[in-house]
Amino acid sequence: MGSNGVTWRLLPPVHGDPASELAAGTAMLAGLVTTHQPALRWYTAGPQPALVIGSGQKLSEVDQLALRQQGVTLHRRASGGTAVLFVPGFLMQDIALPLDHPLAHPDVSESYRWLGEVWQATLMQFGIQTRLIDIATARTDRQMLDTLTARACFGGRSPYELLVNDRKLVGFAQVRRREGMLFQVGVYTHWPGQQLSTLLAILPAERQLFIERLAGRVTDLATVCASPPDLHRLATAFATVLHQRYDVRVTSSDWTEEELKTIASVQSRFLPLDLEG
After folding, report:
1. 207 bridge partner residues
2. Tens of pLDDT along 124-137?
3. What pLDDT was estimated at residue 15?
4. CA of 109: how far to CAs of 17, 56, 199, 220, 275, in Å?
């Protein structure tokens, strides 16, 4: 990649509501058109919980009454999958790559490999040993996954996501557009399985089973690390690994005017959904 390496833009957090944060991912894709430069950002969920469902997930899968009663907003993201609960301590990362970038593999599954390996090396800096899920194992798991556990995005497993003691720690999602591809990563400091169970349309008799099944398949930073890294420590470690492996220099950058316009123009797509009642 050249003797002087390459530069990735490190964008500042939006520090906004979930709609703004979700819109920012779309803006990163739009920014590739003018910058032709990979972009990276880190952010965390705000103090107000929000349930974010996949692009094709049915509203009937959530308990709208429970959402209203708990003051939890409901949003739909651009990527697929099922429900993710945004709560304090949920740490997230977005990476936008041009389609012609060396790490932008045309195969959706294989394109996660480099990301999983960088995250694996990043977490190793905190003494967290992980295992990457290979493509065949992920596909077999998806075929065998029961419909109850599948209600939660972290209940499923995708290629090159990271496991600790056979429980998922780091989850991936991806959006592909003509402008480029957007990788989205999430890791919980504390897994909110109990609260998530109250927000989905699950029969009362199945709720405890849902909690137990997810507890056997999902873990969090507080469980696997005596001193869980915060967003800043993760970002620093991740940048170090990127530089070591790909000669990438992560450099702070402001949002471009085009990106800010995109955030404003697409934010309405991610505003809280109307709840019945």
Report:
1. none
2. 999 999 999 999 99
3. 74
4. 30, 19, 30, 24, 35
Whether residue 18 contacts residue 50, with contact meaning beta carbons closer than 8 Å, is answered with yes
Which comes out higher in pLDDT, residue 15 or 133?
A: 133
Scored b (16 or more CB within 10 A) or e, 179-192 reads: bbbbbbbbbbbebb
User: What is the C-alpha to C-alpha distance for residues 80 and 77, in angstroms, rounded to an integer?
Assistant: 8
- At 210, list the tokens: 């849902």
pTM of the shown model = 0.96
Angle between helix 113-124 and 231-246 (nearest 10): 120
Domains, the chain: 6-270 (3.30.930.10)
Q: What are the helix and strand counts (H, E) for the chain?
A: 9, 11
Amino acid at 3: S
Q: In what order do the strands lie in the sheet with 73-76?
A: 73-76, 50-53, 84-86
Closest CA to 169 of 221, 205, 210: 221
Instruction: Please enumerate in sequence order all residues whose Cβ is within 8 A of that of 265, keeping only pairs 6 or more positions apart, or say none.
Output: none
Q: What is the pLDDT of residues 79-118, one digit of tens each?
A: 988 999 999 999 999 999 999 999 999 999 999 999 999 9
69 half-sphere exposure, CB direction, 13 A CA radius: 7
Buried b (16+ CB within 10 A) or exposed e, 207-239: eeebbebbeebbbbbebbbeebbebeebbebbb
